[in-house]
């Protein structure tokens, strides 16, 4: 595994992170060719048994987030176990000495303490909040205002998101930090600690998207708006057989295709004349979204889903289909069934399921068939591979209780 | 700007992308020190005037997504204008020759065509779908199943998200692709094209999080679940004065703190005994989330928000506050008011507002004060800076109509 193809081959990452943000970061690094070792305490960290589970009790959550890595189990409370981690970080060479962590209050993982073992260590540390207080995706999301903007217009309650978007974005910032720091170290010879916080990623992103500037400049924010796309025209329509499609007219061309398809040119033109506006302009479409969607809805309501799909494709309308998770996985045209994007992987201890490849497609990248680790199963292999330990030394460490599994 | 500090200083990126994914990628590269030039067609691309707007009509959306970049305006329909872009890509040196694009069907931006001008070009091209068909965040999100899982349990309709999470994740994958490809080119001398699609990022991410494996292995997916956190205990509670807080007990320690705070040890213990379960186990908390939240709710409902906040902090409970966007920006403890995370930037043509720094904190990184471009205002500067053009050559290009603004 240490020699996999990809732009990050030659990098060796020690992953002491848990839950979503850190593990998703190192999973992406592994997809791009890095050799990633996830280190768990004996018995597994607190995220090891999270739902959903396979029938054999193994965590499909843990499997997905740790795909492409090797798993080792170490007694992180003992000095002997901690020495194993420090020694893994101290392996010579420009591709080693990389740590991703998110443990709170663990002094032995403090950057200053680790520098004694690896002076050019690169460490990315993920916190909940920048002052060290804990936070998770759900406690961060409510603070940036989005749950009051999500859901039906007449809803009186906040609506949480289901996708842990802040975790995932923090993960990709983490992966970017690792690669940027490696590039810097390759030329300067110096490592560094990079810190980031889930709450900061959320706030900064809200700034990037104009949410913050809108309030700062205009004094108030956009309002809750149901399933409408903000700032242009986009909404969902029901078909006669009870399915729904999302239709978007982001550009004038998209809009004209939609008007043509639905045969509403005359009525839309009359409305434009009466309102002295031009729906070729996205702001005009947005301001009049309720009347426009009401004008378009009957066309959809009079057709079956199958008829609508054919017509939307032929009419070059920008649209998407509302699917269930089951349909995402099982539809004949499911991306999950595409061998380019997912590989069917035999889990070593149980069920077989599709495991994702990198979304980045480039010749020679991502050719590694993704694998799923078993907790602790690679402990001896990694120590042989990275540290050149022989059987007697491994037996000694096992006897001392420093290592688990394998 | 070409010499800004940060791990990506020395990189020069030509940004021909629009909307959210590509621009957010290059904004992050700029935050880390890259010199990014956003290229717009004369008058600006179709995303130039998107809502929200400042009172002067400038787009706060465009400003946020293009922060830290310079803006040039080029007639992209003329050969003279296209030559300007090709020449910018052909500037010698290992930090040049980097392009981010997402235009559909523009043959002159095809990787093969550009290689004649820069044989080691790095190009990251973002598509909606991998087969080239268009898609945007909202038409991708509905296809991965999340809108049927979002919102109140009794809702009969899908609920779209408001955060363009797939755009943002695609953007960070793009930024990662750029830096990974640069590292590879630094050692191999070879450039490459990397392609990614919004729809693929969404599918792969659903795989990483275990959603796909859950259906593949167990035959069905989790159900719509309101504001509950999946797989452990987390939900929102109302205070007596009508505010809401999100409370999460991810670990056993979190749970014990919450039980202690709310004085529910006895009743929770009786329930555990009667149900033969142990709420120290996260799966047990999740399975019994309705009864547990009902047991805890009266404690919150009997207290004001101010009382609840003090008690949650003192009790070391993991929680977050439901805030509006206005509160995110204007609260006394707002991250937006932290000089470390945002800088108040005077927009050259209008309003002043807070602009985000990088979420990655490390000594010497992100010290650049973020700036906001004005469409086309840097055209001459960039051409002088990157191409060493003198005034007469610039005047010639302006006279030929190849350039806009400045």
Automatic annotation (TrEMBL), chains A, B:
One example GO MF annotation: CoA-transferase activity
Lineage: superkingdom: Bacteria
InterPro entries assigned: CoA-transferase_III_domain, CoA-Trfase_fam_III, CoA-Trfase_III_dom3_sf, CoA-Trfase_III_dom_1_sf
Entry keyword set: Transferase
Gene3D superfamilies the UniProt entry points to: Crotonobetainyl-coa:carnitine coa-transferase, domain 1, formyl-coa transferase, domain 3
Full protein name: CoA transferase
The organism of origin for this protein: Pseudonocardia petroleophila
């Amino acid at each position: 595994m240490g020699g996999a193809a990809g732009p990050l081959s030659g990098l060796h990452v020690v992953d002491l992170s848990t839950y979503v943000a850190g593990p998703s970061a190192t999973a992406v690094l592994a997809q791009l060719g890095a050799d990633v070792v996830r280190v768990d305490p004996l018995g597994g960290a607190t995220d090891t048994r999270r739902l959903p589970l396979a029938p054999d009790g193994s965590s499909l959550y843990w499997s997905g987030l740790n795909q492409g890595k090797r798993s080792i189990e170490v007694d992180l409370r003992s000095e002997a176990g901690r020495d194993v981690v420090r020694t893994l970080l101290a392996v010579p060479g420009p591709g080693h000495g990389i740590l991703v962590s998110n443990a709170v209050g663990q002094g032995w993982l403090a950057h200053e303490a680790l520098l004694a073992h690896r002076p050019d260590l690169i460490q990315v540390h993920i916190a909940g909040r920048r002052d060290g207080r804990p936070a998770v995706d759900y406690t961060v999301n409510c603070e940036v205002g989005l749950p009051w903007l999500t859901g039906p217009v007449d809803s009186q309650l906040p609506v949480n998101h289901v996708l842990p978007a802040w975790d995932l974005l923090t993960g990709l910032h983490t992966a970017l930090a690792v690669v940027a720091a490696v590039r810097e170290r390759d030329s300067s010879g110096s490592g560094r600690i990079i810190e980031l916080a889930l709450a900061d990623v959320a706030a900064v992103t809200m700034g990037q998207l104009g949410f913050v500037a809108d309030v700062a400049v205009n004094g108030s924010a956009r309002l809750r708006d149901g399933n409408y796309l903000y700032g242009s025209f986009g909404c969902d329509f029901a078909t006669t057989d009870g399915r729904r499609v999302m239709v978007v007219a982001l550009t004038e061309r998209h809009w004209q295709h939609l008007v043509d398809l639905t045969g509403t040119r005359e009525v839309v033109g009359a409305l434009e004349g009466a309102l002295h506006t031009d729906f070729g302009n996205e702001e005009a479409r947005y301001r009049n979204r309720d009347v426009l969607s009401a004008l378009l809805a009957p066309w959809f309501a009079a057709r079956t889903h199958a008829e609508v799909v054919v017509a939307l494709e032929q009419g070059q309308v920008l649209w998407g289909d509302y699917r269930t998770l089951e349909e995402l996985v099982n539809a004949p045209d499911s991306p999950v069934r595409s061998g380019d994007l997912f590989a069917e992987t035999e889990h070593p201890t149980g069920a077989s399921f599709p495991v994702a490849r990198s979304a980045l497609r480039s010749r020679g990248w991502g050719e590694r068939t993704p694998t799923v680790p078993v907790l602790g199963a690679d402990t001896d292999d990694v120590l042989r591979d990275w540290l050149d330990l022989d059987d007697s030394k491994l037996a000694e460490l096992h006897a001392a209780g420093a290592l688990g599994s394998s």
